[in-house]
Amino acid sequence: MTRLTGRALRLTVFVGESDTWHHKPLYSEIVHRAHAAGLAGASVFRGVEGFGASSLIHTSRLLSLSEDLPVAVVIVDTEPRVRAFLPQLDELVTEGLVTLDDCEVILPQSRLRSTGGTPTTGREDTPGETDAKGKRSL
After folding, report:
1. Locations of Basic and acidic residues compositional bias (predicted)?
2. How many domains in the chain?
3. What pTM was estimated for this model as a whole?
């Protein structure tokens, strides 16, 4: 199981909900490629309202329902792993915005107690690690 704590890089990709890659949603292709690249995690967030370079406001309000709401794909991993993934985005994202932010990943104290550990820096791969009750730790 992969565990990431300490310094990390957050990659955020802002695209439109209707943007596609080979007839699939673009946000889905980004998530699947991040997974295939072995990155620590990726999530997609659908926006309620927003605008981009076109200056056209997209909103989910009923009276002005948009079919192209803003979507943010957020990926977090170590800096070298995120930067190694950027060339794939060059191929996929032709419109939109890509940002990078330094961040710190922490585990809730309850998870630290359940694993019997303390925070570590960097990425650890610990397949099959179990606690005293035989449960797998994350």
Report:
1. 122-138
2. 1
3. 0.71
